[in-house]
Amino acid sequence: MGRGIHVLVPLLLWVGLLTVRGDVSELDGLRDQPPIRIGAFNIQIFGKNKFNDPGVVPELVKILSRYDIVLVQEIRDSSETYIHKLVDVVNNSTRQDEPFSLVVSQRLGRSTSKEQYAYLYRQKYVNVVAQYQYEDTQDIFERPPYSVKFHSDVLEMHEFGIIGLHTKPDAAFTEIDALNVVYDEVEKRFGTPNILIAGDLNADCSYLSRTKMSALSIRQDSDYRWLINDSQDTTVGSTDCAYDRFIVKRNSSWLDNILPNSVHVFLYDDELQLTEDLAGSISDHYPIELQLRGKCEF
Ligand SMILES: *[C@@H]1O[C@H](CO)[C@@H](O)[C@H](O)[C@H]1NC(C)=O
Ligand SMILES: *[C@@H]1O[C@H](CO)[C@@H](O)[C@H](O)[C@H]1NC(C)=O
Ligand SMILES: *[C@@H]1O[C@H](CO)[C@@H](O)[C@H](O)[C@H]1NC(C)=O
Ligand SMILES: *[C@@H]1O[C@H](CO)[C@@H](O)[C@H](O)[C@H]1NC(C)=O
């Protein structure tokens, strides 16, 4: 009798909660989802040579497979095949039940040296619902930002956009200073306030002095929050520069949805115990990363 009540009361509470929240079957399987990890990685001159370096590919596979969404930058490959080949290898060798899909930008750049951006994403967790190649009518950007809107059923934040940018080093100030305009345009087109700016902004050292940094519109405007700080080091080797950044708006849902202490520079040389030579053959940049809270019903 007493035992029956012990079981019954929580059961009634549980049913009551579900009724208040709505459709029971819809909630099934969507409770307490694990977080997903988002990365942004400049794989210095990624193309044929790097893909054919037998030491590098297995390490790139390990690094990329950490992520559920990763913005890859500095793809330089006129054949436009090697990023697909790399993702094939990743799909075949790790986390095979949750393979990557990818979207790739046009080849961008004013000179013959062009680059592409790619977003690798695991369709098991997120889908691409829109893409936008920034229309750079004033020719501000060497490689105009490439943005993607994601939808997810397993995250608290169902919809969000990412603006990917690899600035031209010598024009870092001008390009970063124009990002608030890009942000507004992407927010309008994607119809969500949840936008993340990500990438190798070259936002430090000789490309952006502290004086210039404090003059940036997107720095002066306190609506924006820079998640990788100026003292961090996103470069491999002896340099110490915070080139790669994440930037969000304070009043978007990002700050509530990023797991505490999950914004990192991924030091792959330390983590994978690589020699300095091998680490340098992979890239001159570390990936930056963060984790987003999974959907949680209670
Ligand atoms: C694996 O990688 C390729 C990249 O070539 C991608 O297009 C594909 O959708 C991925 N998924 C599977 C299941 O192979
Ligand atoms: C990946 O697996 C598919 C299907 O088994 C195969 O067709 C493809 O050749 C493999 N690719 C690589 C790079 O191993
Ligand atoms: C910058 O971030 C690092 C890593 O999170 C932290 O250890 C350091 O204290 C921060 N520095 C400043 C000036 O906020
Ligand atoms: C955030 O603030 C801007 C103005 O600074 C406003 O236009 C926008 O609607 C706000 N977004 C949210 C989600 O409150």
Structure description:
With 298 residues, this protein is α+β, with helices and mostly antiparallel strands. The chain has 2 domains: 1-30; 34-292, Deoxyribonuclease I, Chain A (4-Layer Sandwich). The chain has helices spanning 2-21, 24-27, 48-51, 56-64, 82-93, 172-177, 179-190, 210-215, 217-220, 254-257, 268-271, 276-282; strands at 36-46, 69-75, 100-104, 116-122, 127-133, 146-151, 159-164, 195-200, 224-226, 244-249, 264-265, 288-292. The strands form 2 sheets. Strands 3-4-2-1-12-11 form a 6-stranded mixed beta sheet. A 6-stranded mixed beta sheet has the order 5-6-7-8-10-9. β6 and β7 form a beta hairpin. α4 (56-64) packs across α5 (82-93). It is globular, with a radius of gyration of 21 Å. The chain starts with a helix and ends in a 6-residue tail after the last strand. Bound molecules: 2-acetamido-2-deoxy-beta-D-glucopyranose (NAG) (4 copies). Disulfide bonds join 205-241. GO terms for molecular function: deoxyribonuclease I activity; DNA binding. The active site is at residues 115, 166.
